[in-house]
Amino acid sequence: MTYTQGGTAAGYHFDRHEDGLDGLVRRGRAIPEPGANQVLIRVRAASLNRRDLMILDGTYAVPAAPGVVPLSDGAGEVVAVGEGVSRAKAGDRVAVTYFRRWIDGPMTLPLVSEQHGANLGGMLTEYQVVDEESVVPIPAHLSFEEAATLPCAGVLAWSALTTGPRPMSAGDNVLVVGAGAVALFGVQLAAALGGRVIAVTSSDEKALRLKELGAAEVVDRRVTPAWESAVLDLTGRRGVELVLEAVGAPTIANSIRSIGFNGQISVAGAFPSGGTTVDTDVFNGRFFSLQRLAAGSRASFEALNGTLAEHRIHPVIDRVFGFDEALDAYRHLRDGAPFGKVVITIP
């Protein structure tokens, strides 16, 4: 649609949180006008994360505000700017950061408590107003659908590899555990940064696709349930320098057994509570750093984009749904076992 000041546009809203997808309704609203230091974005695509399913279930740490537009991840073009805006202009192709005010530096509770698609307006709408500090230019080689995959999973994978007490270096052995969106970004980025990527998977088809993305070695956990032994063999028994752990409690013990001396394990993703426990004996005799991450700062997003542009990396998209099919996109993420991101295009 063409932007008309004072016009109306469609968007999805959480109206009845206790009803799950039945509480997610589409309706028209006035196109918002940008205030001082704000930009108006014509959203062209949005993508879903596991976090969005948890918000539906009421299990996410930051509950959705009544009536909020869902989805943190989206990309589009700036169509209007408010007074004092210097970071964007009409016509710019941009994405929006996961967190409203986390620009750089360490994560703090106040910074991560403000999240688009939860307690701030999200991207499943034709138009959205955001603070100019939340806007990030997107690489020229990416489509809007590809750029919409970046704010959570892409930035999280980048942060897992490049931050912490022992970030990766070229030549490192990097173990990627999982086959969700964060793990797929991790394989692509670690390979681009010069790492030797070892991936863990559960099917021949996924093994082939992981190698196409840059994995040097793939361990099949069906064949080797104690897959850490295979990882150790692949590294001459010294272990890997870095683990991107994107599964959580069910595999964390295996990851710990795979880590080398003074290595780093980055636990990345939104995981449901309860379930598997870890025997603390796994820590005995092992010395490593363990960090839990939440997406990342705007500076991390900008650094990620630089690497994507330099290496012409394209995110993995499993399926693109139309704006009218938004509820089907949620269902596909929940039940369809996607390999890559689930995206909603907004024409």
Description of the structure:
By secondary structure, this protein is of the alpha/beta class. The chain has 2 domains: 171 residues, Quinone Oxidoreductase, Chain A, domain 1, CATH 3.90.180; 138 residues, 3-Layer(aba) Sandwich (Rossmann fold). It is built from 10 helices and 15 strands. The strands form 3 sheets. Strands 3, 4, 5, 6, 7, 14 and 15 form a 7-stranded mixed beta sheet that branches. The longest helix is centred in the last third of the chain and has 14 residues. The N and C termini lie close together (7 Å). The relative contact order is 0.16. The model has no long low-confidence stretch (mean pLDDT 94).
Percent of residues in helices comes to 25-40%
CA-to-CA gap between the ends? 7 Å
Unreliable stretches (pLDDT < 50, length at least 5) are none
The CATH architecture classification of the largest domain is: Alpha-Beta Complex
Number of helices in the DSSP assignment:
10
What name does CATH use for the topology of the largest domain?
A: Quinone Oxidoreductase, Chain A, domain 1
User: What sequence of helices (H) and strands (E) makes up the elements?
Assistant: EEEHEEHEEHHEHEHEHEHEEHEHE
Total strand count, please? 15
Taken together, the total number of domains comes to 2
Query: If you average the pLDDT, what whole number results?
Result: 94
Question: What shape does the CA trace take?
Answer: globular
SSE map:
Layout: E1 8-14, E2 24-30, E3 38-47, H1 50-57, E4 73-81, E5 93-96, H2 109-112, E6 127-131, E7 135-137, H3 144-147, H4 150-162, E8 173-177, H5 181-192, E9 196-201, H6 204-213, E10 217-220, H7 228-234, E11 240-245, H8 249-258, E12 259-268, E13 288-293, H9 298-311, E14 317-321, H10 326-335, E15 341-345
Parallel strand pairs: 8-9, 8-11, 9-10, 11-12, 12-13, 14-15
Antiparallel strand pairs: 1-2, 3-4, 3-6, 3-15, 4-5, 5-7
Helix pairs in contact: 4-5, 7-8
